[in-house]
Structures are given as structure tokens and as C-alpha cells.
Write the C-alpha cells for this entry.
Amino acid sequence: MSFLAPLALALSLLAVPIILLYMLRLRRREVQVSSTLLWRQLLQDREANAPWQRLRRNLLLFLQLLILAALVLALARPYAEVPTFTSGRTALLLDASASMNATDVQPSRFEAARRFALELIETLSGNDEVAIIRVAENAEVLMNYTNDRTQLRAALERATPSKGIPDWNAALTLAAAGAKGAEKFTILLLSDGGLPSNLDLSLYGDVRHVPFGIAAQNVAISALATANDPVRGAQIYARLTNYGDQPAEVIFSLSLDGTLHSASPHRIAENGAVDITITDLPPDFRRVQAQLTRPANSTLPDHLSLDDTAYAVYTPLRAERALIMSRGNPFLERGFAALNVWQVYRGDPSRGLPTERYDLYIFDGWLPPTLPDSNILIVNPPPEPPPNNLYTFGELTNRAQVLRVRPDDPRTRYLRFNDVNVRTFRPIRADWADVLVEAEGGALVLAGEFEGRRVAILPFNLFDSDLPLKIAFPILIANLTAWYQTPRALSLEGSVQIGQTVVIQPPPEAETVRVIAPDGAATTFRADQPLLIYAETAQTGIYSVEMYSGAELIRQEFFAVNIFSDNESAIAPRAVQLGNSAAAAATDTPEEVGQREFWSLFALIGLAILAVEWFIYHRRLGVPRLRSTAARRFSRTARRS
Amino acid sequence: MAERLFDEKTLRQLDQLTLVANRVRAGAMKGERRSVRRGTSLEFADYRNYVRGDDLRRVDWNIFARLERPFIKLFEEEEDLAVHVLIDASASMDFPREGEGDPKHHKFRFAQRTAAALAYIGLASGDNVAVTALYGAGLNVTWGAYRGRGRSLALLEYIGALQPAGDLDLAGALRDYAMRYPRPGLCLFISDLLAPNGWRDGIAALQGVGHEVAIIHVLSPEEIDPPLAGDLQLVDVESGATADVTIDAAMRDLYMRRLLAWRDEITAYCRKRGIHYATVETSTSWETLIMTELRRLGVLR
């Protein structure tokens, strides 16, 4: 037994004042009694027992000296020398990647690594310093270089495994930064392997690897995607991979919007994969969850359960329906039909507006008595007061010399009107609309939002102009189509890998954007920027992006976050290529000398003696609150006599 | 201590108690008490042979006619009884003081009430009552002796005004009293008997004069089961003497034994000397005191 703080032993001098206090006897409290007659007699009786009395007093003294001894020993920080893995300055790189969740080591690889680290910390020598770096999607310093075991322990207790893919480069760089000024520096990897093969560990100094994990058996959903085929409808594609070295049987079950759609058994050869394509799906669903389970009779373990669940989002393809109310306008029909976005229908103005709803109404030379509640394109408006006081119009004019095309507007992108000739038009004024093309006599093209609908107006007859024959016509239709269509806030193909950021492009009318994680945690953004970045994708599952204007939900979209990493799903422990460094082999035997402190033992002993001393002291001084049995005996015998 | 010993209600109760006590004693406590002497009452006592000089009126002529021998018919003599109420007024009776125990358990206060009750009963039954506070030889203060219920208010006032004080030599004070008031009677002695110089000589002196002695031994619960612990210096309120004691559970147990032995010793002494003796805790309720404790004493029945 040696001491880390031998100076504390000097505190044992405190025994002197304790003994002195005992020798000086304490000052007695004065209490008045009716008579000391009986007490004196008592003291005379007691003289016979005096030695015993002295011993009792000394018992307390002895106990107090013992307590002091225990405390002083504890303060001196005694330690024993034990073998350990590392000494000097050490960076502990705690692999917290998804594969560390594997349960081939009970309770899990991460837990085993954590315990290993805790054990290591217990054997730190006085001058050793340890930093703990958690390696997950990003490297995080849980505790910087310190010798304080309590802090290190607390940092380790805080550490949790992630579901992500570790960033070894960052972690090693972070660790290596600590080498500065250290006599002896070691990087200790607590990992199941799977470091990128292009990493040259010899760059980072003395790197050692403590491997965790023993088995490879794992079946994962390594891909899950949805597709939208115009002919066959929705499709779901999944790939099941067996990373183990034995064939595995699994049941693949698929839930759509939370209800089980199908389940099918599959047999996957060792180190093989099965591709599954599922068609024959309902036309309308959004959220897809795929799950791998073991058949009830399967004895083969699956060590990593994180990758047995995968998520996807399906966006139904829906052609937008456009209704052309015209007495016949092939330009418009062709123009819109050419864009496959639109399913074009024709209506007869003489029979009025059909009751079904269309996404876009195109009124050519005719207007209904009331405006439908959808986007509208008005061409050649009739010379009558429009419904809903949509606009005011002036006299027919031929001053159609184009003056200006509205710049910096997506609706006028690539639009040139210089060579467009219009014979006559009726200038229209509407304060809700932007003038996209302005001529001498007034606006030639207007567009804007009117009572929640997007309305564009071409105030001239197409047959009175050469616009349909010019390149400007399809460009204008395409631009307006893009404007009429509601753009998606998320431009994602497939799913997001865990830890990646998601870019959200909220629509201009959105004021707040709420992202709700699979566990229900909501993040709210103010949509004051065109692009919002959401980075809290640390869970797998389906995230919901809700866009609000005020309190009203105007749009909801989803995205899925998955692991989908061969590197993580392949949980077989892999050796780490340690380069040409001296300790080229994985470390699994402690080779260096550490110090294990056991002051707490002495502190505990001190506490125990203190309890005993307290008990003895109080037994001596105990004042019974109720009348003692002796007093009752007095009353009883008094009555009898 | 100037406050009244009894309120009206208690006094009424005491009156009732008096009556009850009277009846129970069946003539022994009537205003005129049966005497050892033969006298002139209506109650027949005995016959004796006629000797010359006897009053011929007292010869029982019926007996003479039957036996042809003269006998004198003796009757009970009925006299009053001298009741001496002695209160130990030493400082040790002034306990527990403020802050050292329950003030309801104050010994002197209890002694006052007991003395007042006994004296009141005595007055009410026509006895010759004297009440004395013992302060020491030559210092004793005596009220009486008086007879008659009419004195009861004065009695209560007097007893109520008594104050315990001083270091008392109990034996000396008792001896002094025995010499000054030699008329034998019932001597009711109320004390805690905590006298460093002893008290037995004094009792012996009282008995020597012919008193029938009853000791009412008053102890407060704080003395029987002292609420003390730790390293203490005990100060005698009477003599100022100190004793250094470390009181722990064992010590308390020892004290208890000591107290019991002391009490038993006194009991044995009193039994031997034909002294009425009762230990009364000051926590005893009034009713219990009159109805039980004093009856056990043998002076009230």
C-alpha cells in the first residue's frame, strides 16, 4: 500500500488535541436539583465501579481515534499497484456507432466498452491524464484531459450509443491534438473495428485498439425505397442483407401509414442479399415502415436490432387537372397538353361550369358568374364586369408596343416579348396582380394572388396576336404552370442517412415550420429564410415537416431517416489496420502499471466507527421521552406498600 | 404563592369530601372524639368494681340488684382531637422550579394543598387544628391552634401565603415543635424527607410526646425519574452543594434502585415505629390524593 497524498498523514496529529480534550474533561453543565442527597449516595456506590467507568470513557476516545485514523488514511489516498492498459496521457476513443449497439456481448458492445473504460479509469496513476471522446456521427469530447476520476466517471456515465456512422477522422484528429506537450501519449480505440481503410493510423502516434464484439450474425434491411410508376402505380423496393456467416430466415413485414400491409418470409444465404419489390399497393399512402422479425422457431440470433427497421416516404404522383372553358382554342389545349403535368379537359361555356373541382380553370373569352375556388388563367376576358370585382377594364386599344417585362420574377424567366405583336387589347387594372408584361396601353400579362387563388390574365384574344406562334408562348405557359403548381418543401430523393442534415424550403406563405421527430420531439423554425436546415436526425424513423401560416397548417411533408450502412450493419468485429506503429497488435492484456485507489474503503470504515460511536454516546446520554419502566415500577410499589 | 389554594368549586368538593370522610370515620372524627379516658357521654364503655369514693349516682343499680355487688358504669369520654399539620418549608420543597420541570409538579404547592385539605377537614369536624411551617428550630411559624369551621378562610389564607426557604435541619425543627406544642394528637407531617442531617430524631421526639405521627412523603416525578443526561454538575437548591455526575442509562437505573431502596428503608422504619407513611407523587390528581392516597395513610377513612 502506498499513498498518493502522504502529506495528509500529518493530519494524524489531530489526535493530540482529541486526547487533550479528553484529559481536560469537559465543563459540566449545571443543573439544579431539589437535593443531591441521593446522587451523593449513588456516587459513593459507584466508586466501586470506577475502573469500568473510566474504560467506558476511554472507549469513546478510542473510537474517536480510530475514526481519525481511518479518515487520515482515506485522505492520504492509498493505492495498490495493478496492471493496466495505458499510462501517461491517453485519449479514449469510445466508439458510439450503430454497430456498437450489437448485443453479441452482453448487455451490448457499447456497454462493454464503457465498463472497460470505467475499469481503466479506476487504475489511473497520479500523473495520468485521460480524455474521453465519443465517436459518433461527429466526434464529441465528453471530458478533456484530466486526472479527476470522478469527472471522468461522470462523463462515461453520460455517454450514450448513437445510431449513426462514426466520423473516425475527426475523432482521431481531435485526439491527436492532445498529444502536444505529453511525454507519453496513447490513443486507445474502444471499438468493434470498421474504421475506414484509407485511414493511416500511424500518423496519430501510438494507437491501440481494444476490440469489442465476437459475433457477426446480423440481418438488416439495407435499402428501402418507394417509386412512382405512371403505369404500375406505387412500388416499394427493399433489400434484405444477411451479414452473418449462416443462412438466415426472416419475416419481412411492411406497414403503410401504421397498418400492416403484408408480411412475407425470406431465406437469405450467408453473406447474401434478397431484393424484394412490392407492387400492388394502395393508391394513397405516405409512410412506409419495413420490419424484419425472426420466425418463432428461429434459433439464430440477430445481434443488431437497429437495422431491422427501415422507413420510407411515398409521394403519390397526381396529375393536375386543367379545365379549358373555351369555344375552341387549339393553342391553349396544345400548350397545356404538351406539359405532362396537366391532364387537360375541355368544357363548353354554353353549359356552364361543371361541378367537379379542377386544379386549374382556363377561361377563354368567357367568365363564369362566380369564380371557382382554384387557380385561374383568364384569356381574352369578355367586356363585361367580371365576377368578384376581379379587375376593372378600359377601352379597347391597339397601343400594344411592349415596354417592359417584369424582371427577376420566376414567372417571366426566359420570357421575351419583343417580337410579340398584339392587335388590340383591353387594358386591365387589378391591384392584387403584378404586371408581368407591360405595353404602352396597359398591362399585357398580369398575375397575382386573388383571395387565395393564383390568377393570371392575358387581356387579349390569342387569335388577335402572334403570341401562340412565338417561343414566348410555351415559356409563359411553362412558367405559369410552375407558378400554379405548389412546390415541395423537401427536395429529397430516397431517405436521409442518420446524422445528415435536411434542407427545408418552406413556401413563402409559411410563417413557422415545425419538424416533429419520430419520438415526438418538435423543433420549430421561423420561416424567415428561404432555406431552413434541420440537423437533428439522430433517430431513425419518419419525420414530419409541418408548415404553418399563423395557426393554420398549410402543408405537411415527410422524410425518412435510416441507417442503411453496410459498414455498420456488418457487425463482425474487424481488426484495425494500425499501420506500422509499434503496438501493431490489438491490445487485450494489460501491460502497464496503474494505481488503484481504495480510500473509499477507509472512509467507509470511518463512517462505520462513527455510527458505533454515535450509538454508544447516545446510549449513555439517552433521555427517554416516556416515563421509564423504572419510574413505573416506583409508582406501582408505592401503591402496594 | 399568593394565589388561592382552592377555588370555590374545589372548596365545595372538599366540603363534600369532608362530610364523606366524617361519615366514614363513624364517630371517630365527629367533633367530639372518643377519648382514651372514660367520661360522661351517653355511650356505654365498660363496668368496673366500685371503690370507695366513687360517685354513687354512677353505680348500676340493676346489676347491683342482680348480683348484690356494686359496679360502676363507665361511659366514653368525648374530647376534641389536636391535629398538628406540619409542612416542610425547606428550599428543597421549592422544586421543580421554573424551567426545570412541570410547574404543576411543584412539591411545596402540592404540600400546601394537602396541608390545607387536611386542616380544613380537621376544622370542619371540630378538631383543634394547628398548622406549622417548619423553617428550623426557633423559626417555625405556627397558625392556631383553632377550632371551628369559621376559621377555614383564615386557614386557607395562611397556608396560601407560605413560602419555602432556607436550609432546614428537619430533625431539629421537629424536635423544637415537639417541645413547644406538647399536646398529643394527630401529627400530619408533609415533607420530601430530603434532609441531609436526617429527620428520624425529630419523628422520635414527636412520638415521644405522644403524637400519632403520619408522614406524607411528597416527591415530584422529576425526582423519581429525573429528565437529566450527560455530564452534569448537580446543584442542591437547598444547601448549594454540588455533585459531578455523568448520567447515562446505567446511571439512571442505579438512581432508580437507590431511590427505591431509600423509600423501602423509610417504609420499614415507619412500620417498625407505628408511623403512618405514604409516598405521594406530586403528579397525583386531587381526587386520587384525597380518596386513595390519604386513606391509605390511615388518617382518613
Chain B touches chain A through 59 residues (CB under 8 Å). The first strand of chain B starts at residue 33 and ends at 49. The two ends of chain B are 30 Å apart (CA to CA). Residues 18-31 of chain B have pLDDT under 50 and may be disordered.
